[in-house]
Amino acid sequence: MAEVIYLTRKALYPRFGFALPEKQIAYIRDDLPECVKQFVISHEVYHLTDNANWWVWREIKANMHSALRHPIGFMLCLQMSLVPYRLRYYLQRITGRAQ
Ligand SMILES: [Zn+2]
N or C: which end of the chain has fewer CB within 10 A? Predict the structure, then answer.
C-alpha cells in the first residue's frame, strides 16, 4: 500500500515530489497549490508500481497517467516548472548529473 508523506520545499528542493518504490513511499512538497499537489501525488504514486527502466519513458508514462486525471494541476505544474532552478534540475537529469 502506497504511503504519501509531505515534506517542506527545502527538504525536496528542487523536486516537487519523489518516489521510493522499494519502500512504497511517495514524498510530496507540502506547499504546492492543491491542484498541483494532486497531480504530483498521482505522478509519484504511479512511479511506485511502474516497472519501466528508462527514466524518460517512466516520466512520460507518469505524466500522461496523471495529466489525464488532473489536467489543471498538470498545466499549472508545467508553468511552475518554467523557472531557472527547475530548468536547471531538468538539464541535470538529462545530462545524468541528477536523478
Ligand atoms: Zn517522475
Answer: N
